[in-house]
Design a protein that fits this description.
2 domains, BirA Bifunctional Protein, domain 2, 39% helix, Rossmann fold, homodimer, five-stranded mixed β-sheet, 428 residues, 16 helices, alpha+beta
Chain lengths: 428, 428
């Protein structure tokens, strides 16, 4: 039987030139995190189904999960996200001093219909602060997010960090006249606004508001507000503590110089567990605003594991979505895409010289020089082609012991001749 | 319901100080590979069951696999190893110029009884050369393996790279009088030699040799040989091409200066797919020799996907096993275990100074300085404790705009006062 040469649909496979790009993206994310004192952790990919059934949105576990019964008769799931595992790690550390600043780049799984930017097996970068109820924590994760975008050299014209507050919105919707039982539907309608045409969306919203156009109009006004200093909003929210928090956070962002942040009441984020400030990173350079990253404050996750009350704030960012964004705007450096595989290539003209090639390779590598050694035994012109294919311009030909080394520069044809020490000096 | 705070048995969870160690190990493996011109790739974790059923040893798929039927009714498996996926990637690349030098550090899964050094979810480093039938390829992967051990500062007294050849051993066993139908059993007995007491093992071997003690004695002599220049072995193998290859490879290793390599006919490696030279890295510093890594040449894997004939040579190395080895011998640097989380800590004495702390953090991070900023809003002495806990000795207190910055050194109590530029100069 001949097996298929394709991986399963939606699965992640990276040839070296593709992996270099992914690695560059993940390492840039890590570097911004490390520069802010965040530490990397890792969690299991196989988890008890109950961990996700307890808290995630029903759709995740019901229709989009990879779950099965293992050989020990446990109901398990391949994690669709990492936050519940993170909460459990924190809950298990009795001695852990809080707050902690943690990040991770886990593989996650969702059984969705594969399409551009949406796959079944994906790397989701996560960054969280746990154990601080202070707005400085929200501020810090947004500082890191902005630093990430600056590290990728993304100009501020192509992205925005829109933010709001779930607690504020719950209160604001109530003051707009949304009945408590209609609130979840209205939240969900607001979440879908960017994905629908304006007219169709209004009709949808009206339905969720029980057909009351006064209420729907007020909700429309609410989600159209661009600043907490809107007179209409201030009147609506008089005396609201949740709105005071919004005003305070807005002030913090402005005075900290986060130019990319924008108050956007329409940002509600789908996941059930957010309770306070929520935010998303949006691609604003195209025709449609695409969300690249979402985050916010969650208050009760750790409580699932016992009596502890630990509040967290963080975000998740799909590495594939971000990579496509960076590629769209030409932000993946050429040096990453076309990196040379080594500093020098050692050609071997005859089987008699394999061990002298090996000795030379060892000597050069010991000096930190990256050395690709021929292993093909092919003709010399093929070996030179291999060097060229890997972006290597210097080729040394291994020869008899005691002889001088000859190194050819493929680009300009020049030849350097010298002892081992001279060769090392030249290559360094 | 309160959920368990423990991950499932055998699953991998890493707190930051544990993850730093794992990352150090994986990055050191990567660096040695990159220095030899190897490139990193990645493959899906979920694979069709048929990919493994076709070639791996039966035990893997039969009793030790995580396999299930997905929502699309596909029989899938969480890969127990990466080599079949690698072979498929190579087979799919019609245009790929060979040979290629590739490595990867994939998560893999085996449903085994968890014990020290053996878990169900593990990172397995893999390094391969595909598309070369030249012994230089075997030599190169062993060069990299030795370079890895040197990069970890492992003295040659605590490890050995034992090697043999499957083709040679098949012929040698036959010349020792082992019947063809007994050969698999004898191979398997040889593979278990290090795990059994000498007496018990001989009895076991004798059984596999059909009770013929002449044959068993010759097999015992064979696996006790330490060099291809053994007179007994040369006599036994007269005229054998497979033995000539062994002699040639021994010569190559010796003349390339691989002092840690040792001819060991008892090294046969369990996996079905090896066909030529096989080798393993063994911990020789303890009472029992433990295998840290195994590898060799496989000739037919890519053929599963069509007509191509591509030969490969490579090895797999369990990151956990290697980490335990390094820890046993004190080879994990203190600087990795006790790394500081940042260069400087910004303390915040009042909520009024959160945004000035944020502005300072941004200014310092822009200069590449790692800055942890307080997000707790706790009292100053708690903030200083946090800095100490993270190994940060410099603490700047954020203050009113325009004021000079004060930075305290926690170790010696000294205070530095200066402008932003002076602070940056001091920290860099």
């Amino acid at each position: 039987m001949t097996l298929s040469t394709k991986p399963l649909s939606g699965m992640r496979q990276r040839l070296p030139h593709e992996f270099r790009v992914e690695k560059y993206v993940v390492e840039t994310l890590s570097l911004s995190s490390l520069n802010a004192g965040f530490e990397e952790y890792d969690c299991p990919l196989i988890e008890p189904l109950s961990l996700f059934a307890a808290k995630s949105g029903g759709e995740l576990v019901g229709r989009q999960s990879y779950n099965f019964v293992d050989r020990g008769k446990r109901e398990v799931i391949l994690r669709p996200e990492v936050t519940p595992s993170l909460a459990r790690m924190i809950a298990a550390q009795g001695e852990l001093q809080l707050p902690v600043r943690w990040f991770s780049s886990p593989l996650c799984y969702r059984y969705e219909r594969p399409q551009r930017g949406r796959v079944r097996e994906f790397v989701q970068f996560n960054l969280d602060i746990l154990g601080s109820e202070n707005l400085a924590a929200e501020l810090e994760v947004i500082l890191v997010l902005q630093d990430i975008m600056k590290s990728f050299n993304a100009p501020s014209s192509i992205y925005r960090i829109g933010w709001s507050s779930r607690r504020f919105m719950a209160e604001a919707l109530s003051r707009c006249g949304v009945e408590p039982e209609s609130a979840p539907g209205v939240f969900s309608a607001i979440d879908k606004r960017d994905k629908m045409k304006e007219d169709a969306w209004y009709t949808f919203l009206l339905g969720e508001c029980g057909g009351d156009s006064d209420v729907a109009d007020r909700v429309l006004s609410l989600v159209s507000v661009k600043s907490p200093s809107s007179k209409w909003l201030i009147d609506l929210m008089a005396g609201s503590a949740a709105f005071e928090e919004v005003e305070r956070f807005n002030e913090l962002l402005l005075s900290s110089g986060i130019e990319s942040a924008e108050f956007s009441p329409g940002v509600v984020r789908g996941l059930d567990y957010y309770t306070g400030i929520v935010f998303e990173l949006v691609d604003t350079g195209g025709e449609n605003n695409r969300s690249l990253c979402g985050g916010g404050r969650y208050d009760n996750l750790v409580g699932l594991f016992g009596n502890k009350k630990i509040s967290g704030v963080g975000f998740g960012l799909g590495v594939l979505t971000l990579t496509l964004f960076l590629e769209t705007y030409g932000l993946i450096p050429v040096s990453v895409k076309e990196a040379s595989a080594a500093d020098v290539y050692i050609a071997v003209s005859s089987p008699d010289f394999v061990s002298s090639a090996a000795r030379l390779a060892l000597s050069l590598r010991k000096e930190g020089i990256r050395v690709m050694m021929d292993v093909s035994g092919k003709k010399m012109n093929k070996q030179f082609s291999e060097a060229t294919r890997y972006g290597i311009t210097s080729v040394v030909t291994a020869g008899a012991d005691g002889a001088m080394y000859k190194m050819k520069n493929i680009d300009d044809g020049s030849v350097f001749t010298g002892t081992l020490d001279e060769l090392i000096g030249r290559l360094k």
